[in-house]
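Thread amino acids onto this structure.
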Protein backbone atom coordinates (compact mmCIF):
# COMPACT_ATOMS: atom_id res chain seq x y z
CA UNK A 1 0.00 0.00 0.00
CA UNK A 2 2.79 2.37 0.92
CA UNK A 3 4.63 1.56 -2.31
CA UNK A 4 1.53 2.31 -4.40
CA UNK A 5 1.03 5.64 -2.62
CA UNK A 6 4.68 6.57 -3.19
CA UNK A 7 4.40 5.71 -6.90
CA UNK A 8 1.29 7.85 -7.38
CA UNK A 9 2.91 10.71 -5.47
CA UNK A 10 6.01 10.52 -7.68
CA UNK A 11 3.88 10.58 -10.84
CA UNK A 12 1.97 13.63 -9.61
CA UNK A 13 5.25 15.40 -8.80
CA UNK A 14 6.60 14.65 -12.31
CA UNK A 15 3.42 16.00 -13.96
CA UNK A 16 3.66 19.15 -11.89
CA UNK A 17 7.30 19.63 -12.87
CA UNK A 18 6.52 19.24 -16.59
CA UNK A 19 3.63 21.69 -16.39
CA UNK A 20 5.87 24.21 -14.61
CA UNK A 21 8.58 23.89 -17.32
CA UNK A 22 6.29 24.80 -20.24
CA UNK A 23 7.77 27.52 -22.55
CA UNK A 24 4.68 29.75 -22.33
CA UNK A 25 5.16 29.92 -18.55
CA UNK A 26 8.68 31.36 -18.55
CA UNK A 27 8.62 33.13 -21.96
CA UNK A 28 6.10 35.94 -22.09
CA UNK A 29 4.80 37.32 -25.38
CA UNK A 30 6.66 40.61 -24.87
CA UNK A 31 9.98 39.08 -23.86
CA UNK A 32 13.19 39.14 -25.85
CA UNK A 33 12.50 35.73 -27.42
CA UNK A 34 8.84 35.49 -28.52
CA UNK A 35 7.09 32.16 -28.60
CA UNK A 36 6.68 32.29 -32.39
CA UNK A 37 10.45 31.77 -32.80
CA UNK A 38 10.53 28.52 -30.80
CA UNK A 39 9.38 25.18 -32.21
CA UNK A 40 7.74 23.19 -29.44
CA UNK A 41 6.13 20.57 -31.70
CA UNK A 42 7.80 17.24 -32.40
CA UNK A 43 7.24 17.31 -36.17
CA UNK A 44 7.92 20.34 -38.32
CA UNK A 45 6.16 21.13 -41.57
CA UNK A 46 7.87 19.56 -44.57
CA UNK A 47 9.26 21.99 -47.10
CA UNK A 48 8.90 21.15 -50.79
CA UNK A 49 12.04 20.11 -52.61
CA UNK A 50 13.40 22.85 -54.89
CA UNK A 51 15.78 22.06 -57.72
CA UNK A 52 18.90 23.96 -58.73
CA UNK A 53 17.15 25.66 -61.63
CA UNK A 54 14.40 27.18 -59.45
CA UNK A 55 16.93 28.29 -56.82
CA UNK A 56 18.31 30.82 -59.32
CA UNK A 57 15.18 32.90 -58.71
CA UNK A 58 16.47 33.56 -55.17
CA UNK A 59 19.67 35.30 -56.29
CA UNK A 60 19.95 38.75 -54.69
CA UNK A 61 22.07 41.24 -56.63
CA UNK A 62 23.85 44.22 -55.01
CA UNK A 63 22.27 47.69 -55.33
CA UNK A 64 22.95 49.45 -58.60
CA UNK A 65 24.93 52.65 -58.83
CA UNK A 66 23.31 55.98 -59.81
CA UNK A 67 23.14 56.31 -63.57
CA UNK A 68 23.66 52.59 -64.14
CA UNK A 69 21.17 51.02 -66.59
CA UNK A 70 18.38 49.04 -64.97
CA UNK A 71 19.09 45.35 -64.59
CA UNK A 72 16.44 43.32 -66.44
CA UNK A 73 14.41 40.77 -64.54
CA UNK A 74 15.26 37.08 -64.98
CA UNK A 75 12.69 34.34 -64.44
CA UNK A 76 13.67 30.66 -64.16
CA UNK A 77 10.94 28.06 -64.48
CA UNK A 78 10.74 24.38 -65.33
CA UNK A 79 8.57 21.31 -65.38
CA UNK A 80 9.94 17.90 -64.48
CA UNK A 81 9.03 14.31 -65.26
CA UNK A 82 7.08 14.99 -68.45
CA UNK A 83 5.94 11.79 -70.13
CA UNK A 84 7.60 12.64 -73.43
CA UNK A 85 10.87 11.96 -75.17
CA UNK A 86 13.65 14.47 -74.55
CA UNK A 87 14.78 14.17 -78.17
CA UNK A 88 11.34 15.16 -79.46
CA UNK A 89 11.14 17.98 -76.91
CA UNK A 90 14.58 19.28 -77.99
CA UNK A 91 13.30 20.34 -81.43
CA UNK A 92 10.52 22.43 -79.89
CA UNK A 93 12.85 23.92 -77.26
CA UNK A 94 15.34 25.08 -79.90
CA UNK A 95 12.51 26.39 -82.10
CA UNK A 96 11.43 29.09 -79.63
CA UNK A 97 14.84 30.02 -78.23
CA UNK A 98 15.57 33.71 -78.85
CA UNK A 99 11.94 34.61 -79.63
CA UNK A 100 9.72 37.02 -77.76
CA UNK A 101 7.13 35.48 -75.47
CA UNK A 102 4.21 36.35 -77.77
CA UNK A 103 5.94 34.98 -80.85
CA UNK A 104 6.83 31.74 -79.05
CA UNK A 105 3.26 31.25 -77.86
CA UNK A 106 1.98 31.84 -81.39
CA UNK A 107 4.39 29.25 -82.82
CA UNK A 108 3.40 26.68 -80.21
CA UNK A 109 -0.31 27.36 -80.72
CA UNK A 110 -0.21 26.03 -84.29
CA UNK A 111 1.95 22.99 -83.52
CA UNK A 112 0.14 19.66 -83.24
CA UNK A 113 2.85 17.99 -81.15
CA UNK A 114 2.24 16.92 -77.57
CA UNK A 115 5.36 18.69 -76.31
CA UNK A 116 4.16 22.02 -77.74
CA UNK A 117 1.17 22.04 -75.38
CA UNK A 118 3.43 21.31 -72.41
CA UNK A 119 5.91 24.06 -73.31
CA UNK A 120 3.07 26.52 -73.83
CA UNK A 121 1.73 25.80 -70.34
CA UNK A 122 5.21 26.28 -68.84
CA UNK A 123 5.66 29.62 -70.67
CA UNK A 124 2.29 30.89 -69.45
CA UNK A 125 3.19 29.90 -65.88
CA UNK A 126 6.54 31.69 -66.16
CA UNK A 127 4.87 34.77 -67.64
CA UNK A 128 2.39 34.93 -64.78
CA UNK A 129 5.22 34.45 -62.28
CA UNK A 130 7.17 37.32 -63.84
CA UNK A 131 4.31 39.77 -63.27
CA UNK A 132 3.37 38.50 -59.81
CA UNK A 133 6.76 37.86 -58.20
CA UNK A 134 9.42 39.67 -60.26
CA UNK A 135 7.73 43.08 -60.72
CA UNK A 136 7.62 42.93 -64.52
CA UNK A 137 5.34 45.74 -65.68
CA UNK A 138 4.35 44.43 -69.12
CA UNK A 139 3.97 40.69 -69.54
CA UNK A 140 4.65 40.95 -73.28
CA UNK A 141 8.05 42.59 -72.66
CA UNK A 142 9.83 39.24 -72.23
CA UNK A 143 11.99 37.06 -74.43
CA UNK A 144 13.23 33.48 -74.11
CA UNK A 145 16.93 33.56 -73.29
CA UNK A 146 17.37 29.84 -72.57
CA UNK A 147 15.22 26.87 -73.54
CA UNK A 148 16.57 23.38 -72.97
CA UNK A 149 15.55 19.86 -72.08
CA UNK A 150 16.94 17.14 -69.85
CA UNK A 151 16.51 13.41 -69.41
CA UNK A 152 14.09 12.22 -66.75
CA UNK A 153 13.45 8.76 -65.36
CA UNK A 154 13.32 5.86 -67.79
CA UNK A 155 11.17 2.95 -66.60
CA UNK A 156 11.02 -0.54 -68.13
CA UNK A 157 7.74 -2.42 -68.22
CA UNK A 158 6.59 -5.80 -69.54
CA UNK A 159 4.30 -6.06 -72.54
CA UNK A 160 2.45 -9.37 -72.72
CA UNK A 161 2.27 -11.09 -76.11
CA UNK A 162 0.46 -14.19 -77.24
CA UNK A 163 1.47 -17.80 -76.42
CA UNK A 164 3.23 -16.84 -73.19
CA UNK A 165 5.67 -14.46 -74.88
CA UNK A 166 6.47 -10.97 -73.65
CA UNK A 167 8.48 -7.93 -74.63
CA UNK A 168 10.11 -4.97 -72.87
CA UNK A 169 8.89 -1.43 -73.34
CA UNK A 170 10.51 1.78 -72.08
CA UNK A 171 8.52 4.66 -70.61
CA UNK A 172 10.62 7.78 -71.16
CA UNK A 173 10.28 11.05 -69.27
CA UNK A 174 12.04 14.39 -69.67
CA UNK A 175 12.47 17.79 -68.04
CA UNK A 176 11.98 21.20 -69.63
CA UNK A 177 13.82 24.34 -68.45
CA UNK A 178 13.18 27.91 -69.58
CA UNK A 179 14.69 31.30 -68.69
CA UNK A 180 12.78 34.50 -69.45
CA UNK A 181 14.53 37.87 -69.52
CA UNK A 182 12.82 41.23 -69.49
CA UNK A 183 13.18 43.28 -72.66
CA UNK A 184 13.14 42.70 -76.40
CA UNK A 185 15.08 39.74 -77.83
CA UNK A 186 18.65 40.39 -79.04
CA UNK A 187 19.30 40.55 -82.79
CA UNK A 188 20.10 37.18 -84.38
CA UNK A 189 23.72 36.31 -84.92
CA UNK A 190 24.92 36.25 -88.54
CA UNK A 191 25.41 32.72 -89.90
CA UNK A 192 28.96 31.40 -89.82
CA UNK A 193 30.59 30.13 -92.97
CA UNK A 194 32.69 27.01 -93.17
CA UNK A 195 35.85 29.13 -93.32
CA UNK A 196 34.94 30.93 -90.06
CA UNK A 197 34.28 27.62 -88.32
CA UNK A 198 37.63 26.29 -89.55
CA UNK A 199 39.43 29.36 -88.18
CA UNK A 200 37.78 28.88 -84.76
CA UNK A 201 38.78 25.22 -84.73
CA UNK A 202 42.42 26.02 -85.57
CA UNK A 203 42.46 28.69 -82.84
CA UNK A 204 41.14 26.18 -80.29
CA UNK A 205 43.93 23.79 -81.24
CA UNK A 206 46.52 26.54 -80.75
CA UNK A 207 45.11 27.55 -77.37
CA UNK A 208 45.16 24.06 -75.88
CA UNK A 209 47.72 23.08 -73.25
CA UNK A 210 49.65 19.85 -73.76
CA UNK A 211 50.91 18.34 -70.51
CA UNK A 212 54.01 16.16 -70.09
CA UNK A 213 55.61 17.53 -73.26
CA UNK A 214 58.69 19.61 -74.03
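Threaded sequence (214 positions):
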Amino acid sequence: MAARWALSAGAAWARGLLSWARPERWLASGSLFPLSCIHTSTSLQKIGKIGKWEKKNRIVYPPQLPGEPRRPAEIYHCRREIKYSKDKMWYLAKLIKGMSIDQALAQLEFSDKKGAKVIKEVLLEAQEMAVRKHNVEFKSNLHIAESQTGRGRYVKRLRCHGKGMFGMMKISRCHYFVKLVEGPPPPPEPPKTGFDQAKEYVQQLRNRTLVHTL
